[in-house]
Amino acid sequence: MKAYHVYDKENSGEDACHEIVFAETPAQAKYRSEAYSNGVPWTDIAAIRKPQFDQYAETGEIPRSAYIADGWYFECDRCGSFSAQNEVNGEVICDFCLEERSA
Ligand SMILES: [Zn+2]
């Protein structure tokens, strides 16, 4: 199985449904995606190869650190803002909380 970053490239829905989907082909990844099951038109869905996630295909569990390394954002474990990109001792926190923490 190969890893694909699948999302709604037109961002026409409530969110763009960014996710990593494991599949054999881009079409299969799109078919399995959250975007497709949410009714996003097929031609609006992008499936981009992400070889760096292939190693997680077996378990399907991708650590947050791997997403962060690929430039993804998370909800901050401390304040809940959707801009967390720092992993500290198992927590994922935003820049603001990172500064607070070290202050
Ligand atoms: Zn925060």
Given helix and strand content, the structural type is alpha+beta
Radius of gyration (CA) equals: 15 Å
The low-confidence parts are none
Strand order of the largest sheet: 2-1-3
Major sheet attributes: 3 strands, antiparallel
Hetero groups in this structure are: zinc ion
Q: Termini separation (Å)?
A: 44 Å
Strand content: 15-25%
What's the shape? flat
List the keywords:
binds zinc ion, flat, 3-stranded antiparallel beta sheet, two-stranded antiparallel ribbon, single chain, 103 residues, alpha+beta, Wheat Germ Agglutinin (Isolectin 2), domain 1, 24% helix, 4 helices
Structural summary, described in words:
This protein has two domains: 1-61, no CATH class; 63-103, Wheat Germ Agglutinin (Isolectin 2), domain 1 (2-Layer Sandwich). A three-stranded antiparallel sheet has the order 2-1-3. A two-stranded antiparallel ribbon has the order 4-5. By secondary structure, it is of the alpha+beta class. The mean pLDDT is 93. A hairpin with a 2-residue loop joins strand 4 and strand 5 (91-93). The protein is 24% helix and 22% strand. Bound molecules: zinc ion (ZN). The site of zinc ion has 8 residues, from helix 4.
Can you give me a brief rundown of this structure?
This protein is 24% helix and 22% strand. It has four helices and five strands; from the N terminus they run ββααβαββα. The site of zinc ion has 8 residues, from helix 4.
Secondary-structure blueprint:
Blueprint: E1 2-8, E2 19-23, H1 26-32, H2 34-37, E3 45-49, H3 64-69, E4 86-88, E5 91-93, H4 95-102
Antiparallel strand pairs: 1-2, 1-3, 4-5
The chain binds zinc ion.
Zinc ion (ZN) is lined by residues 76, 78-79, 81, 93-94, 96-97.
